[in-house]
Every structure is written in structure tokens, then in C-alpha cells.
Amino acid sequence: MFLNCHSFHSLRYGTLSIEELVEQAAVLGLKELVLTDINTISGIYEFKKKCEEKNIKPIAGIEVRRGNELLYITIAKEFQGVGEVNRVLTSYNCDGIDLPAQPDFPNCFVIYPLSNIPAQLHENEYIGIREEELNSLFRKEYQALIAKMVILQPVTFTTKKEFNLHRILRAIDNNMLLSKLPKSEICSKSEYLRSEQSLLEAYQHYPQIIANTKNILSVCQFEFAFTTRRNKRHYKGSKEHDINKLTALAYAGLERRYGKDHAIAKQRVEKELQVIDELNFSGYFLITWDIIRYSNSMGFMHVGRGSGANSIVAYCLGITDICPLELDLYFERFLNLNRKSPPDFDIDWSWQERDMILKYIFDRYGKNHVAFCGTNVEFKYRSIIREMGKVFGLPKEELDELTKNPEKVFKDQVVQKVQEYGKLLEKFPNQRSMHACGIIISEEPLTNFTVLEMPPKGFPIVQWDMHVAEDIGFDKFDILSQRGLGTINDTVKLLEEKRGIKVNIRDTTLSKDEALCNEFLSRGKTIGCFYIESPAMRGLLRRLKCDNYKVLVAASSIIRPGVAQSGMMREYIFRHNNPDQFEYFHPIFEEQLGDTYGIMVYQEDVIKIALHYGGVSAADGDILRRAMSGKGRSRKALQKVKDDFFESCRQQGHPEELSTEIYRQIESFAGYSFCKAHSASYAVESYQSLYLKLYYPLEFMVSVINNMGGFYRTEVYIHEARMSGAKILNPCVNRSEQQTTIYGDEVYLGFMHLEKVEAKLGRLIPEERIRNGEYRSLEDFIKRIPIGIETLQILIFIGAFRFSGVPKNELLLKSRVLLGDFKPGRRAETLFEEPVKHFKFPELKRNIFEDAFDEIEILSFPVSCTPFDLLQTKYRGTVMAKDLIQHHKKEVKMLAYLISRKHVPTKRGIMYFGTWVDNNGDYFDTAHFPDCLERYPFQGGGCYLLLGTVEVDFHFPTITITKMAKMPFIPDPRYSHDEEKKYEAQERMREDVSMTFRAPYPQEHEIGLPRMKTLKE
């Protein structure tokens, strides 16, 4: 009898999850239920499964609204009816076509509210009558329509509290105070789930209405095959043509990658092709190859990573650049006959080129068949408090206090209400958004399965997330982007443009295991290089003395929280440095994990130990794999794996203590680990970056700066360029471009670094220079470039007119005389075509450090000198960074400039790890424990005097700080007569702060991990 049920997928309207709705229907003994969320089908697939678990007949529908106006409720007679409504809503969302007043949905029942009855009802159309509207039926105009009426008992909530929650959601949606929310925006108080008997009694005098309702429920079916794969099936039109094409491409690639007579590679290709064909995955491989082919034709660079790199066929097709034979990567991790869920390829492009790849995919495979995965953006605690606070009219100060102290008990009743209802909203979907990278390419039109929406990005999205996509048979293509590839790509282009040097960086033999690269790698000289530039990673490389590809692959994975959380990162470092001072836990660890000293480093290692030591089934191994990939959603399934693991270990006679320790390590991997192929892909890209940094450091650092990406702020990369021999120069209107550029060893900063100079102007200045020659003077520049006085003065202050030889002070006065109240839009009215008048300006002297303070004000760092040059003290420390390794356990005093600090939780409180440069420009690291930070906290960016004890941990020195003080700059000479502003500039100095809120990593003594075999069989 319930033809109109809402779940919380009716965003900011419904208050029930699918599970709660179905559970309550089961308690009431209902045998049929219709889900009709507002303008969405997000929940229908979960709804079907949940209903069938409770022996309830599921029926799918959609309530169609324009804004808050209810037009009609549609109920699908069979699944194809859902598609009819999807297409109309998609046209409304994506093409701006208005919703029809009376739609043509032959495979749906359409139910109109009493307020919106069309002039003529079709056979499949009805009028919904609420209980409170029954008295209206005595009116003459409705008497003749009773035969076309059905029971309309909408469901939006179940309790008074949920009704209040509904009102709050509506207020949030309308961005208004709860007290101002009009009744027209909220549902009726009668929209709750009730017993079917009470509903039938209310309509007992209208048997025709009851019969019509029952007829709809009996006629409608919701048949859906969840096991059917729904991606585009074939690239060449048939399974046979696809496997033939794939085979031809694979063998051509086999010869290109391995030569003509590589028997092992050929055998592996044959084996993989057989499995791919058997699982009907040829089309998936070919579509991926097609995308890569287009990318290559455009000269784009890509990285195929993730478990797809386990496939030699993918390697031969050029989808990945990882040789699975070299690293003993087994194909079954990617694709096997027992794997319940199909895999996907993860492919990265430069952030600058990704949209062109996406456009190709949408154009090539058709807009009706391609869309991004959606994602439900849930209400999170802080956003809930902000939203709720606005609804209840809380002032900003109270909101700030509440956000900072969520668990604090407040006396104010309104604040208590905010907290109470805020907790109910946690995990509610708030809005739909676009998945970061997941693309679906469908065999059938996607509107058969979903309404499409058009977010601001300009690519359509489906209304369900990746988990639902997988459940209903869609395998996504992950089309990702990153700035590291942009840096590599831009460096190669810059080398060819500026120096005529061509580097085939795709030839991984150029960079991988190159001797000088390995030396720099082992010394952690990797700033600017993809994935290996963070302080933690550089420290790890030094601790491992990482000097080859395979160790780098391992390092890329053990840096992940999963391995570190288990304490096995520390253990790996020890065993790598002391290979004769440990024993394997068990012979299986030596047999399966000999390459990594018996340490589980990759996802595959966990599966190997679970299978070979724990004796779990292949299906349980797949559950573990999904948990480690962050895709596992069932705690119950994971608990079963754990129970099976321990039971199997007992049956095999393994000691409980050893099994407990091993499972502790396994558990720590959940959601925080890489598969080996993923680490290998990252390692290859890291080598490519390092190769370019080593042999072409200036072009490489310019590209890093222009890609605006990496662990550090721009200033650090500019410092690195200077350390590599570059002369760093401020923007100049006759030399600079919007991006930073290079001429020989001179690096001119781009206009992009001047926050108040618009990008449009930053591009116009060099364009005009190319067209009509260099600017001859400030006056000439003003004639040719439409610019306002404020922007012009920024350019003057940064030294962009220094070519003229005119002092800044004089240029500033000239600019005011020439422009005054001039507006860029009034250039045509000026008399600039007349000869420029020459004025005699007084000679104004400048302090040598004024430029530096101008730079700090505009860029937040000095260019014409170092921060050390601006200090009041001439002291530079007793020890320099390059000598720290010789001072183990000794106290040192250093003067250093703060680069970055990382917030790290510990059981004793918050600590920080700092990264600094000394006066020589060399980097070093510090540790700041909570008790020290309490007395000597960080005080923002700048130079500090540091006192601490050096600890050398496996070749890597860190200073444990005991005292710290920020050192003052000289007074700003620009404000010599203004006491307040003399020291303001120092406050503009920046630092990079990275925040982590994970559980503290355990210390070695807390784990008590046995190195020698004390846990005996």
C-alpha cells in the first residue's frame, strides 16, 4: 500500500537509510514496498537486495519534482520503465529541457497529486489521494475520478525526532533559519510508515481505490541480474574479433619489449591471453589500449599503475611500463578465474592533459555510454555543526567553540539541540559529486540504469558510487592526473625548446638503475622528484642506503601507513642493514618473502602469508585484498576471514602466539598498502624525475615550479634551483612570461607568482612583447598594456622595470603622475599618443635590503638575498648539516631556516618533525617532542636558533631539539619611522605544515617483535 517511500537518498529531505526503511517495513509485516526517491535512483539497487533479504517484494520508482514542486510519482512496471524516467530527468539535468507536465512513460504507472491532475488521464495514470484528502472526494469534480485513484501514503520519517530532522534538512537545503522555514517546504506530519491494516481501514469506504493500489503492486516487477557485466563488451564488434586483435597487439609488443626469442615471456603472454579471453576481458584491454594509443599520438606521457602492471599483456600493449618478469609480479593478482570482482586499470596523465583524454573518451564512445562515477558527499561533523548552527541561528563565536570542542557539554539548550541532531546526521549523504577519476563505458545507454547529472566540471556523472557500480556489473576505468608527470613532460619539452636536446624519457633503461641516479637516491637528494621528495621518504632512502630499483620499489610501499603501523617499516630497515642478525618467523616466510627479509611489504605478501601460512581459502584472500585496497565494506566478512585464519592455524599446529603476531601485522595493512606493481610504477616515475633532476637540474626545477605541485612550497624549489647553479631573477616585463622561464642559467620568475597580477595580464605582457618588440620604458609599457595603478605598482615593487635603469622610487612617482585615477577601461580617452612630458624627480636613496623586504611582501620570501642575510645576528651555528652524521649523541647548536614541519600524534601528545636548511643551503631534520614544544613552540616561518642532540639512525641524522628560539630580522628599512611596521615583514615568511591525525606509530620496544626465532613451532 506504500507507493511513495523516500530514503535519505532524497537529499536533504528523507531521513531513513535504505536499511532502516526496509527493516521497519519488515517489522510491520509488509509484503511489497515501492522506493520513489526524489529525482534519483541512487538507492534502488541496494533497496532490491535488502528487500529480498526480508522477503519483501521490491518495486522501483522515482518521485519527479521541479524544485520543491511535486509533479508526479512514477512506478516502473518492470525495470525498463526506470530507464524511461531516467532519460527525461537526464535531459532536464544535462540539457535544460523542462520536465513534461504529462510524460509518456508506457512502462510506468504515473501518479499525480490532487493538486496537479492533467485534463485527460491515460490508462497507466492515476491520482494519489492522501488520507487527509479523502473528505475532498465528496466534491462533484472528483466523484468521476475515483475509479482512477490510488492510496497515497508517502513515507519520509518514522518518529517525531526524525520529522524534526527532516525540517532541519529542509532548512539546510534552503539556507534559512529553521524558524523561518515555510510549511510548503516540509512534508506532512502524516508521512510515516504505519501498519497496512490501519491504512486499509482509513480507505475502507473506497474499495476501488484500494483495488487500484493493489493492482499496481501486483503488476510491477523489479527484475535485475546483478551478475551480468555491463561495460562495453567488444572493441571490434565480437568476442572473436577482439581476442584476435588483442593477440596480434600482444605479440607485436612482445617482440618490441623482449625480442624474438624470449620463451618465458612468450609463455606468460599465452597464459594471460587465455584467461583474458575466458573472462571476456579482451574488450576492456583493447579500450584501454585505444585510450593509450590516442595519448601517445598526442605526445602525452602516462603511467599505468596499480595491479594492472602485473600483466605482461598490458606491458606489451604499452598500457604499463613495468616488466612483470623482472619483479616476479604474478598475473593472478590482477585477473584470475576465482576473483569475484573484476579489476581496473589505474592510469595517470599530467594534470594539464587529463581533460583532453577525457574529451577523447566521451567523443569516441558516445555521451550516452560514458559518464563519471558519482560519489555521495556525506555530512561530516564540522560541516554538520556549521550547517546546523546556521539553521538554529548560532553566532559564529559559538560555532567556532562547538567545532573545536565537539565533545564538550554545553548548557545552552540550542547548542545541545545542534549536538543532538548533528549526531543523527553523521553519514547522511549531503550532495552528489563526481568521483575523482572513475569513468564508466557502458554497452547499453547509461540512462537504462541511472539518471545522469551535470556538475560544474562539465562531464556527466551517474547517480551511484563506485561500490554500486561494481555491484550492478560496471568496471570503471580510472583516469587520473598528477603534477609529477606534468613536471617530467614539461622538462622534456623545455630541453628541446631551449637547448635543442631530445630526451626519450619513456625509455626507462635511461634512468632506472643509472649509477649516478642511484648515488643521489641513496643520499636522499631527491627534492622535486615524484613520490620520493618528502622528508619522511628522503629519510627512509638514506636509512636504507637505497641504491637500486628493487629497494626503491620496496621503499615506495613500506613508507605507507600499513607497514609503518605494524612496526614492520622499522624492522625492514634493521634487517636490510643487518641481514645476518635475524631469523625468519617460519620457513614459509623465508620461502614466500625472502626478497623482503620475511617482512610483509606489499598486498601480495599479505595474501601469500594468509594462504600459505594461515591456510585461508582463495575467496578469503580476495576479501583481504579488497580490505587492503580500502574497498572492503563488510566487517562481518573480515571477521569471518580472521576466524578462519586462526582456526586453520590451530589445525596446522601453529603456536597461538606466532599466529596472533602475524595476524596483527596483516590487520595493520587494511586500507593502507600498495600492491607491488603499484610501487614499481611509482618507482619508475621517481627514477625518471631523478634522472632529469640530476642531468638537467635547472630545466627540471623550472618545470617543478611551473607545475605548482609537490610536497613543498615554491620557495623551496627556487632554493633548490639556486643550489643547482641557477641565477634566480625577479619577474621582468621584457624577459618573463606567465610561467617561470629559463635563459641559460638565468631563471626568471613568472608573473604567476604575483598574487595580485591576474593570469590574463600575465599572459598578455609577453604576447604583446612578441608582437611588437620589447618595452622601451615604463611609459611605453603603459601605452601598450591596459593596466591599473595598483597592479602597475606591484610590478614596479618586484623590479619588473629594472631594465630601464630608473630607480623604483622614481618609477612609483612616475606611475602616479602618468596614471593617477586612470582606469584600464578608459585607455582610449587618454592623450598617451602625445609626446611624453619629462619630469625632474628628486633623487631618493634606497637601503640595499629594501628590495628583499619588497620581495617578502609580494612573494613571501626574498630573492635578492637569503633569509640569513636579513638576520640581526651574524652567528651561523657551530655545526653545519653536512657534518651532522659525525656528531652522533653529541649536542649541537645550529642556526637554520624553517622549510616544513609535520604534525605527528604520539601517546604523550603532539610532536613535530621539522625540515630546515642551514646557511650553506643544505637540508637537515629535527624532532620536537611534546614537552619541548610546550616550552619552545614553533612561531611561524623564518630562522631559528636550535639546540639539540644528534641521533644517527641507520646513516640518517636527526636532531632531537631541547631548545629553540625564533631569530629576529633587521628592522624593515622601508618603515624606519614606523615602529609598528618595522617587523611586520617577518610574519609573512611561510612554512609548510602537514597534518596527520592517524593513530601513533608504535615504537620498537612497544611491539617487542622477535628477531630471533623465539616463537617456536
TrEMBL record:
Swiss-Prot/TrEMBL keywords: DNA replication, DNA-directed DNA polymerase, Nucleotidyltransferase, Transferase
SMART domains associated with the record: POLIIIAc (SM00481)
Record flagged with keyword Transferase: yes
Origin: domain of life: Bacteria
Top enzyme class: transferase
Organism: Sphingobacterium kitahiroshimense
Catalytic activity, EC: 2.7.7.7
Keyword presence, Nucleotide-binding: no
UniProt cross-references to SUPFAM superfamilies, sorted A to Z: PHP domain-like
Catalytic activity, reaction form: DNA(n) + a 2'-deoxyribonucleoside 5'-triphosphate = DNA(n+1) + diphosphate
Protein's name in the database: DNA-directed DNA polymerase
